[in-house]
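[Automated response] Your request has been received and processed.

Submitted sequence:
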Amino acid sequence: MTRKITLIALSGIKLVEPGDDLGAISVAALQDNGTVPKEGDVLVVAQKIVSKAEGRYVDVTTVQPSERAVALAAEVDKDPRFVEVVLSESMRVVRRRPGLLIVEHRLGFVMANAGVDHSNVPTAAAAERVLLLPLDPDGSARALREDLIAAFGARPAVIVSDSFGRAWRKGTVGVALGAAGMPALVDLRGQPDLFGRELLVTETGFADEIAAAAGLLMGQAAEAMPMVLVRGLAWSAPDLPVAALIRPAEHDLFR
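Generated structure:
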């Protein structure tokens, strides 16, 4: 049996600004691209435009760094004001070296710079703005999904995605920060493999796999494709938020 998954990058999306209605923007983008979402579709939305719509900007020039931020900035060769913003979004510092600061974000993600980012952030006069992650990415995904359901009747899933580096491997890939209407994690333990052996540890990062696929079209630079509709997927597992993907620290041999 042939299976096919289709990825559709939505073009023509405006540059999102604080206070913009991301639901209305998403509905218009789908309509303008001649695409009506169906049951089983997944709309993958880049974290950047979610954070921009939610006004998650910080002007680094207004930040007063703490003594801790100043000391840490000297170790990692970064602006102390930037480091202070990173610390404000973090529960703890996991690893550091010159040029690199890995932290545990307040949402549980282990990542560089707590996701605080300059890239694809518009400049403002006499300011140096950075963008933070959404306060509640799963909640952002739920809200956007509700807007899509209200507009189209169908119930597509929604993923808020970002680009992460990975331990032991070079290169960034798309991962899910938030999800709604789908299982972010699919537990396959207890199911048989091809030869009837019981799977003992296998859990699939379903939302991460979809986010990575969408990243092929979203890109990392000036592509301006922050929304991708993924069609052709099927699942039977119960809905789970991205919070279910986070490995507890006590299960992590490297923390």
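Summary generated for your ticket: The mean pLDDT is 92. DSSP finds six helices and twelve strands in the chain.
If you did not submit this request, please reply to this message.
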